[in-house]
Structure formats: structure tokens, C-alpha cells
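Thread: quick sanity check before group meeting

JM: Hey all, I'm pulling together slides for Thursday and realized we never actually wrote out the predicted structure for the chain we discussed last week. Dropping the sequence here so it's in one place. If anyone has concerns about the input, flag it before I start.
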Amino acid sequence: MVKSGVDLRQQGLRKNKTRDMVLCAMFVTLIAAGAFIKVPIPVVPFTLQYLFTMLAGLLLGGKLGCLSVCVYILLGLAGLPVFTQGGGIGYIFQPSFGYIIGFAVGAYVTGVIANGKGNPGYPRLMAANFIGLGIVYFFGMVYYYLISDFYLGTPIGLWPLFLYCFILAVPGDIVLCIVGAVLGKRMIPALKAEKMG
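JM (edit): ok, ran it. Output follows.
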């Protein structure tokens, strides 16, 4: 029996939906694992989480990349110890929680910018990664400042905030942006070709 064009299209849509769900689940796992691959530095530990949240945006696109990070956040807030220092709803009072929020927004923006072209080149990928990184640090630093000042009652000055929450932490993330662009350049066309096939 010959399948109609509608049947084949529906089958293709189901296949893509299943594929997207599997990739989202994979990135949730990678982001969680990235929290425990860390280099200890003062105030905000350096982890591989940004690499995986960035790649989620690059490879899955803005919406699915953001969805992967949001699922990760919900699992952590539900009590699974997937954050750098554990999990649970009380984690929203950790000064570093702003970076986690930034991961979700950053993944969305990175994905939208990078996938604005069918086969993005290095300039577009680098721009997407660095804009996403800027968003992560913006959310992280503002949240750190507000929680320290208004909840913990231990105000932090703007210079110490900039020093500990940006200058000391950002060099490693700049390297991750470059690594992400290289991986994205190789993997985005392959994933899009597989999706079309």
C-alpha cells in the first residue's frame, strides 16, 4: 500500500518531534553534568554549564534550547541536586541563581541569532555566543547584587561585584564561546541535514 503525502508528512513530523524530545533530554543531562565539572574560583565557581546551555541554543534553536534549560531549572527547584550547590526551591535565594536564569534567556537568544541563517558562519556563531554570554552575566550580576543587598543583608559594592562576578569568571567562558562556535559550525549543518532527511 502506497502512503499518501499527508501520511508521510505526519510521519516526518512525529519523527522530528521524537528527535527533538530526545535531544532536549540529552541537553538537560549534559547541563546537569556540567554543574559538577568545575574549577573553584572565588564567589562564582567556573563550570561547563555555560558550554552546554550555549550548545543547546546553537544546536536545538532558541525555543528548544531555552526549554532544555528550563526543564533543568525545574528539576533543580523540585529538589534534585543538579545545581552546583545542590537543589530545592530555596536555591532561588542563592546569589548565584541569577546566572542559572541567565542560562535560559541566553540559550534562547543564542539560538535565535545563530539559526537566523541556514548554515551560520563563525562571525554569526561568535556573535551569538558572546551576546548570550553577556545576557548570562547581566542576569547573574544583577541577581547577585539584589540578593546580597536585600535578602542576605551583606551588600556588595559595584567594584567587588564586577571583580568577582565578572573579571575573575569570564576568561574561561570566553574560551567556551570559541569552543562552542567551533562545535556549532561542525554540528549545526549535520543536525539540519538529518532533520530534513
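AS: nice. The CA atoms of residues 16 and 22 lie 10 Å apart. Residues 5-34 form the longest helix (30 residues).
JM: adding both to the slides.
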